[in-house]
Specification:
81% of the residues lie in helices and 0% in strands. With 144 residues, it is mainly alpha-helical. It has one domain. Helix 4 (39-59) packs across helix 5 and helix 5 (63-89) packs antiparallel against helix 6.
């Protein structure tokens, strides 16, 4: 599970950072070429979510919640960049362009459904809460 988190988290983290470092190629310029209104806002908005969610996924902190914004980003990327390739150029050019996005989407769904695994902050929090909440059996909590 940790390898899945590292792969997904690092890819989103680095993609988000690149939107700030290379705005003309991967940030505002790219969103302008795709046809977004207010491309600067959307580039930095998306980049910020990619950075924050990527870090959360790497750490295994609120992993299931952190998978939702990247899934939305992947859906929008599919609709705006990959679907036109399928419609205009055909199946094989689409497959060539979409395989990485498809893999990332499946890995995000995997993390969303299975959680972050035992080597994560989520797991540590869960173990701590279980220890502190259930030190006694439920029917003994209210006895004096």
């Amino acid at each position: 599970m940790i390898l899945v988190r590292l792969v997904v988290g690092l890819i989103f983290l680095t993609e988000g950072i690149q939107k700030y470092i290379f705005p003309e190629m991967l940030g505002t310029g790219r969103f302008f070429r795709i046809g977004f209104s207010d491309p600067s806002f959307w580039a930095y908005f998306t980049g910020t979510f990619e950075i924050i969610c990527g870090l959360f996924i790497i750490l295994g902190l609120l992993t299931r919640l952190a998978c939702i914004p990247p899934l939305i980003i992947m859906a929008v990327a599919f609709i705006t960049t990959k679907w036109p390739i399928l419609v205009n150029k055909g199946f094989w050019p689409f497959v060539d362009e979409y395989y990485t996005d498809f893999t990332m989407t499946l890995l995000l769904i995997y993390l969303l459904t299975n959680g972050s695994g035992k080597w994560s902050i989520d797991s540590k929090i869960s173990r701590h809460l279980k220890k502190s909440t259930y030190k006694t059996r439920p029917h003994e909590r209210f006895r004096k």
